[in-house]
Amino acid sequence: MINAVKSLAAFTWRSRMRNAGVVVFAIISLIPAIISFIAIQYADKAIENPILFLREYIVPINVYFTLPFIALFLTLPTVASLYEKGAISYIFTRPVPRWACVSGVLVGSIISAAPLLLIAALAPSLVFGIFRPESFGEVMNIGLMHSLLLIISVIPYSALCVLLAIWSKKPLLWAAFFLFFWGTIVGSLPGEAKMWSLHHYVMGLAKSMCGIDKVATGLLPPSATPPSNLLSILVLIAVTAAMLYLAQLSAKKRDVY
Question: Which of 181, 162, 125, 176 is nearest to 239 (CA)?
């Protein structure tokens, strides 16, 4: 079973990170750093506190856009290629439990996403550290916490994408709905609906780990009453486990021929 997990994790890594598509992911990951560089070059005097800039611009950009984008486009194509090439039918005829196959894809997606998310979180802090050396320690500290936040958050996001990719033959629409519309938009609106959004709990961690109180644009602000760290972690763990369980059930029912 461990070998199955390792094999599918390695396949996921190779299929996503050893082709031209990785250039696109790298560019997406560098967007926050590019924004930081442009801001320093053209609005340096307006940036009184680099920490506030990172909190109000960069962390929200990564949580609202970079994180779901990378989770979605790293995970869905891998599962789709397994079904389209017929490899999944061979895998499912081996004496390996379905949960091991599903877990392998999830592990591979997380490993593939990790370096991209580290770039997205650490590169902006490094830019400020270079051009504002007096704040190097502070900006790198928030960069490290930002990195940890994204790595934790990509686990349930990727698990959701694995489920949708197996359960539906049109997973892109479902994933875009759950990660962007229901996640980012509904998860930021007042009311009880946000309690059912992963984004709400990710932002709860973001407030504690990165000190986010608001976003610079004023659009889709963090909740005034964010969940506690313990509740957020428990929800993210529970969602990951539930997604994996439902994914292996869906794998048993979906036609692989």
Answer: 162
- Count of positions (residues) in the chain: 257
Q: Measure the CA–CA gap between 138 and 125, rounded to whole angstroms.
A: 9
Distance separating the N- and C-terminal Cα atoms of the chain: 23
The secondary element (H helix, E strand) that includes residue 80 is helix 67-84
Q: What is the pLDDT of residues 36-75, one digit of tens each?
A: 999 988 876 667 789 999 998 999 999 999 999 999 988 8
Per-residue model confidence as pLDDT tens digits over 146-177: 999 999 999 999 999 999 988 887 888 888 88
CA distance 3 to 8: 9
Enumerate helices (H) and strands (E) in the chain, giving the number of each.
11, 0
- C-alpha distance from residue 256 to each of 84, 93, 250 (Å): 9, 10, 11
Helix (H) or strand (E) holding 10: helix 2-17
Per-domain boundaries in the chain: 2-253
> Whole-model pTM?
0.88
How far apart CA 75 and CA 86 sit, in angstroms, is 17
Q: In terms of C-beta density within 10 A (0-12 exposed, 13-18 middle, 19 or more buried), how is residue 19 classed?
A: exposed
What token pair was written down for 69?
């984008």
